[in-house]
Amino acid sequence: MRRPRSSARGRSRARARASVSLVVLGTAVFVRSCDAATTYVTLPVDGSFHGEYESIGRDAWTYFKFAVPTPSDVDVVVDVESGDADVYVLPPCSPASAPCDDPSDVEGKYAWASWHGSGPEEVFISREFVTNTSFGTDKFFRVGVHGWAQHGSRFRISVEAVPESRAMVKDEKDALDSIYNKCCNGSDSCAGWKTIKSRDLDYCHSGLASCTKSNSTRQLNLQSQRMDCELTRADFATFGSSITRLYLNQPANLSSKLTFSFGLNQTHSSIDLLSVLPSLFTLSLSYADLGGRTLENAFCRDGVSANLTEISVTGANLTGEVPLCLFQRVPKLEALYADSNHFGGTLPDLPMSANLRALHLSNQRTTTRTISGAIPSSYASSVTLEHLWLSGLNMTGSIPDVFNVSAGRFRDIDVSENLLRGSIPATLAQQVHLESLHMGNNQFSGAVPAGLYDHPSRRVVDIKSNQLTALNVASAHSDLGASLITLNAANNRINEPGIPSVLTRMPKLTYLDLSGNDLHGEILSNASTNSWALLQLDVSSNSLNGTIPDASYWGQIFTPGPLDRLFDISSNSYESVPDWLNSYVGMSGLTIRKDPSAAVAPTDDGSGLTKSTARNRPSTFLVIVFVVGISTLSTVAGVLALYVQRSRRFSNQFRPFQTGNFRGVELT
User: Fold this and answer.
1) A single GO CC term, please (predicted)?
2) In this model, does residue 618 exceed pLDDT 60?
3) Which end of the chain is flanked by fewer CB atoms within 10 Å, N or C?
4) If we measure between CA atoms, which residue out of 511, 518, 562, 557 comes closest to residue 540?
């Protein structure tokens, strides 16, 4: 299961999750690093599994490589016995003289990837890519297997140069051709599929299907084809129990023309094609049109595969509520991706037997109702949930302070844009594996608990737009904030002296937003301990004043090179700014925001800090301006005094009156 990506400067709210990434016909980006210490195990390409199942820990990596002797399709399969392991692949380096990056999901360093909640992972590399790409002297593809499960995983891997003799069995080929003829008549439909047809590629060599050695279909990847049709059980009946993964998800933000027929049997799923696919592990229908069906009618009925572990129905026009039966009738369900539908009601409790690891229900689009009520305590206390997205709903009350500190597996929590209130639970702040936390735009109050952002596992913490009053913490971690990249605590009620000194000791802290609070005094109370890596700092709209340390105290902000750097100290109480700051105005890639009325303060004799007690002798021009100003004010004061006297003399000559609805004053 792939980690949901978190941008360092804030995530996009449109978070459509692709269940698999396969390059069918295309090119790849070659990337390098200076680390040549990685050990790669060489794999044969005969389709045999490499040794026995091996163990891999959480967030651990094992690396392999293989070479393709003659141009052919390549199938990389990771068979997962237990836990969850994902696979990432990069092509050979070009040229081969320099070390290359290891394949991973960090910063997108992969050309092919496969990530699922459970079961086997598979990557298909087309013969066209192998044929049309120059690899230099190094012919080795690089493979990274990533352990994702908290309790560890066991896997084995195989690589097969797919023989040209492999071809989809005729009945299944005819069934796919029938779907093509039915769904791909539009001018903007099935562009990739049309290319495959024009090249007369067998489906087993196209990336649209993954075939076994016996030529049967185990996976259909028809995602993003912009199909325009209604699919029925008859379209998939030929494939039967051989298919374990079916991808029919359509492009996001597209008015989908892919629909599904309703089942007539009330005891069976309303998505009738499910009744002929009893072996499905993964079903992806995101951004297709499910015609206002409910999750209960679709998945709490007979005929639904008992093996389903992953359901993706984001933006699929579903209605109703999230039913308890979903977690009972689909006992192996580990991931439900159902953002951007039309759900309402309240959330059901999670049964103790639930295996759920990922629950995404954000941004329900119903205009009159949405998911509301309290977050059940069973969600917080779960020892299986790793990803919980409940943003943009109408959740109320407080978050239960019952997170399991010793066994909790949370890695990503998003409850932003709700109506949640109360203090932030201390047990939430103590979650050991939590990397990404989004709680902004709620009504949380009180002090931030220790561990919330200073725990070494945290990478992104967003607590903006609440009513929090204190941010500084007494951290219990020797490696405090070791992984923190982004902290956004803007628009709260934080009333503290300057930037908390604990933040300056976080070596990866790059983006810091503390704007719109009540920070006061000097911006850095202890400027000698900074080791952060800042690129952007926003402390605007506070009450800061006094000394501003020189450029060396602010990470990478004033270092030439990185783009999108920011130093915003506007709307504070500075009467002057140091001249060193003005010397950076106009630097490429750097935005400086300060109050235009603030004068330029002199620097001292080389320390780099402004002298808060420095005095300059006023110029003759300023003295003249001062004298003229005093004379003008005296004249104005005399005129005002005369006016007040006259006003008092006539003040008793007026009285109020009312005629009908009209009110006024009249002279007596």
Assistant:
1) axoneme
2) no
3) C
4) 518
Q: Residue 383's closest CA among 360, 403, 361, 359?
A: 403
Average pLDDT over residues 613-619: 35
Q: Is 59 exposed, middle or buried (0-12, 13-18, 19+ CB in 10 A)?
A: middle
User: In terms of residues, how long is the chain?
Assistant: 668
The single residue listed with the structure tokens 């690093």 is 33
pLDDT of res. 30: 30
State the maximum Cα–Cα separation within the chain, in Å, rounded to a whole number: 113
C-alpha distance from residue 572 to each of 381, 466, 518, 546, 593 (Å): 43, 21, 10, 10, 11
C-alpha distance from residue 45 to each of 77, 141, 366, 398, 557 (Å): 11, 11, 51, 55, 49
Q: Write the CA distances from 389 to 157, 375, 385, 416, integer angstroms.
A: 32, 12, 11, 9
Task: Please state, as a whole number, how many other Cβ atoms lie within 10 Å of the Cβ of residue 231.
Answer: 22
Instruction: Name residue 438's beta-bridge partners.
Output: 414, 462
- Torsion angle, CA of 147/149/152/157, rounded to 10 degrees? -40
Closest-CA residue to 310 (of 351, 350, 360): 360
What is the mean pLDDT of the segment spanning 75-86?
90
| CA 233 to chain CA centroid, nearest Å | 35
pLDDT in tens, 250-276: 988 666 689 988 765 666 777 888 889
Considering only 34-38, 60-64, 124-128, 186-190, which range has the smallest mean pLDDT? 34-38
What is d(CA 415, CA 395) in angstroms, rounded to the nearest whole number?
8
Q: How far apart are the first and last CA of the chain?
A: 87
pTM (2 d.p.): 0.81
Amino acid 389: pLDDT: 97
* 333 neighbors 308 (Cβ within 8 angstroms): yes
Query: In this predicted structure, what is the pLDDT of residue 562?
Result: 75
Specify the DSSP class assigned to residue 333.
-
- Taking alpha carbons only, the member of 398, 401, 412 closest to residue 362 is 412
Q: Are 189 and 229 in contact (CB under 8 A)?
A: no
Q: Which stretch of DSSP H or E encloses residue 621?
A: helix 620-650
**Strand 576-578, strand 590-593: pairing:** unpaired
Q: Which two tokens stand for residue 244?
A: 């374990």
Q: Is the sign of the CA dihedral 572, 578, 582, 587 positive or negative?
A: negative
| CB atoms near residue 302 (< 10 Å) | 11
- Please give the torsion angle defined by the CA atoms of residues 427, 432, 437 and 443, in that order, rounded to the nearest 10 degrees: 10
**C-beta of residue 350 within 8 angstroms of C-beta of residue 359:** no
pLDDT at 416: 98
Which pLDDT score, from 0 to 100, does residue 656 have?
A: 35
Task: Decide: helix, strand or coil at residue 171.
Answer: helix
Query: Residue ranges of the alpha helices (H) in 514-573?
Result: none
Which DSSP helix (H) or strand (E) runs through 178? Answer: helix 170-183
CA-CA distance, 109 to 20, in Å (whole number)?
Answer: 15
- pLDDT at 36 > cutoff 80: no
Q: What is the pLDDT of residue 13?
A: 31
| Burial classification of residue 60, based on how many CB atoms lie within 10 Å of its CB (0-12 exposed, 13-18 middle, 19 or more buried) | middle
